[in-house]
């Protein structure tokens, strides 16, 4: 007997700890996303295959001196990539950045902000 495919509704009732709910809501807000959109992105990231660039570069910190600001390129491991910065309008030589995502030849970066103690 052949298995029948069922179409899912896309709705998942989910019960989580209220403190976790608060943390997730705050993280979503920081990224300018709805909680639903933020959770969907987390789930998608968890199941999609990682690219070579994701495995090699995500999480690495790069210096502002690695940027070619005129051409909007950044040099990582000897290769120039296009970039997007998720929390700043432009790259700066005097800042450091963490690589959040690699999609083909485009890196998504976040400027690291020094914490005051």
TrEMBL record:
Signal peptide: none annotated. One of its GO terms (biological process) is regulation of DNA-templated transcription. InterPro entries: Arc_rbn_hlx_hlx, Ribbon_hlx_hlx, Uncharacterised_HicB. Pfam families: HicB. This is Toxin-antitoxin system HicB family antitoxin. The lineage of its organism: Bacteria, Bacillati, Bacillota, Bacilli, Lactobacillales.
């Amino acid at each position: 007997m052949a298995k029948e495919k069922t179409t899912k509704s896309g709705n998942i009732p989910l019960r989580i700890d209220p403190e976790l709910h608060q943390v997730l809501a705050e993280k979503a807000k920081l990224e300018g996303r709805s909680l639903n959109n933020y959770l969907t992105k987390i789930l998608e990231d968890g199941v999609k295959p990682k690219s070579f660039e994701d495995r090699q570069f995500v999480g690495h910190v790069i210096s502002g001196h690695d940027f070619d600001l005129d051409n909007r390129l950044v040099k990582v491991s000897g290769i120039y990539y296009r970039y997007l910065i998720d929390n700043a309008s432009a790259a700066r030589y005097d800042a450091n950045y963490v690589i959040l995502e690699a999609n083909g030849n485009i890196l998504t970066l976040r400027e690291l902000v020094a914490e005051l103690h």
